[in-house]
# Entry
Amino acid sequence: MNELLSPLEVLKRNGRWLNEFSRDVYSQTGEDGVIAKALEMLPSCDRWCVEFGAWDGKHLSNTYNLVENESYNVVLVEGDKAKYESLRNEYPYRERATFVGQFVGWEENDNLDTILEKTSTPLNFDLLSIDVDGNDYHIWKAVQKYRPKLVLIEFNPTSSNRFDYVQPPDPNCNQSNSPAALVRLGKSKEYELICVIGPNLLFVDRQYYEAFHIPDNSLDILRDEDEVTHLFLGFDGSLIVDGPALLRWHGLPLRVNQPFPKALRHYPPNYDRWSGLFFRIWKKFHRFD
# Structure
């Protein structure tokens, strides 16, 4: 018997077909399998990829599988001096790797264009993997000369699909960016979203988008909000938490301070004389600006 699906469920199933290929060889949340299938859908590949924050080039890498099993050339950028030296000396496929020892930024002297100009990377290389735990948006925005066919970029998974947030461009800031902000940036650069894999968005150059046969690539179709924490207000003034009440990167519970003392948490039309007086006095001594 055929499963009966709603129109929304059909859109989600048809839009998320790439997720069926999720598998990890060296990646963390299925990226290796999805990337391999996405590359297969492209009309041609030059077998070049770029990854930064490379560490050892292998642990939780989104490019190592391509280098090891598909004979890819790779540019690995690592800003930490000790990690860079280890990467350069111990990476197994040094004959097909270019190592760069610096942090990727968004200014003229440190953006990805400036870094790649010193390498043999093709302008239209196959895959760019961006995962720097914060300034991913600003780094991708600064890429103008090079145009990778696929861009895999990290977002903050605790953000809702409708929230458009970009963290300040600050090397010392690690807030990350909402998926909606990255989709907006992608569209401004003529890239289309084709898959959401764990905390990553996978984009394709718009000229190749039709090959993926995705009927609706909106965030609401391609991404569920299982990890999102929502706050909403009850009519009585209570602040209510829906979703994971956890500071996930610190392993601590999310503690929400209620805006009103418990005695005032009632629907205002139901205040009696004394509650109303208490509220007016309390409000007078608390500022909300």
